[in-house]
Amino acid sequence: MTMAEQSTEHLDPADARPERLRVFLVDDHAMFRAGVRAELGAHVDVVGEASTVAEAVTRIAAVGPDVVLLDVHMPDGGGRAVLEAMRRTHPQVKFLALSVSDAAEDVIGLIRAGARGYVTKTISPDELAAAIRRVADGDAVFSPRLAGFVLDAFAARPDAPVADPELDQLTNREREVLRLLARGYAYKEIAKELFISIKTVETHVSNVLRKLQMSNRYELSRWAADRRLV
């Protein structure tokens, strides 16, 4: 038996396994976090979770995960606010956006803020686990349709911020409601999709109409389509 063979003879097989990544979940829906945690449990170690921006900033700093799965639309600035708070103090933490939104401005905004990738919530558990691993390794990861948004935006105006004064006056939740409304969703369907009440949907629509100075959902749909929000 050679020395090399002697040196490896008593190694535990577990020592050869790849180290499990430490992942943190940020999403304001508890049921969704529970589902992701259950699905990813076989692939990674979920070391923490948060439902608000402030909670996320505090807990990510304390835990120091490898990758943060980050929802885009939450109160108080959403995923972008988390990124902006963390990127200067914890640049080693990598962020992967996981969102229901596939709108160009959301994708580009999160990437400009420092996310390493962006995938939608239709992704399968195995694909999500693979995306997390790639982000941890330093790759950029996007759902296929979303990659084109990023390439187009950075190729056309690499140094220009994505800004729209009319759009900027809407909250993240109002943008979500607007996007679904423009896709033809009924109020009941929007409420189910976003886990809010129909009355809350009506309030958001009224606010959007007032802020954009429009009178009906058909005008909103055309406005959203012109900005590629649909």
From TrEMBL:
Keywords: DNA-binding, Phosphoprotein
Domain named HTH luxR-type: residues: 163-228
GO biological process, one term: phosphorelay signal transduction system
Residues found modified as 4-aspartylphosphate: D71
Residue runs in coiled coils: none
Superkingdom: Bacteria
Gene Ontology MF: a single term: DNA binding
PANTHER family the UniProt entry points to: TWO-COMPONENT RESPONSE REGULATOR (PTHR43214)
Name under which the protein is recorded: Two component transcriptional regulator, LuxR family
